[in-house]
Write a structure and sequence with these properties.
mainly beta; 5-stranded antiparallel β-sheet; 5-stranded mixed β-sheet; elongated; 0% helix
Amino acid sequence: GALTQTGPAIEGEVRLTAPMTGQVTEVLVADGDQVREGDPLLVMVAMKMNNEIRSPANGRIVDVSVNAGDAVDQGDLMLTIDTESE
């Protein structure tokens, strides 16, 4: 399933947080990448299922906070998207 969860953000910024506790298996974007709403950003495994995390907005990746292999808890910051830089 594709899950998207966002934390509190400053204007023009989306902070993508882990929707569940699990492990990041793939990071599909890097700092500076342009993304469109719905683009896959990373893949995480939770309860033995792969979950593709998709972009909630158009913008540019400004900070990837996780790496493949990282364990994350629900609510952990995974990446930040600047939505002002269309």
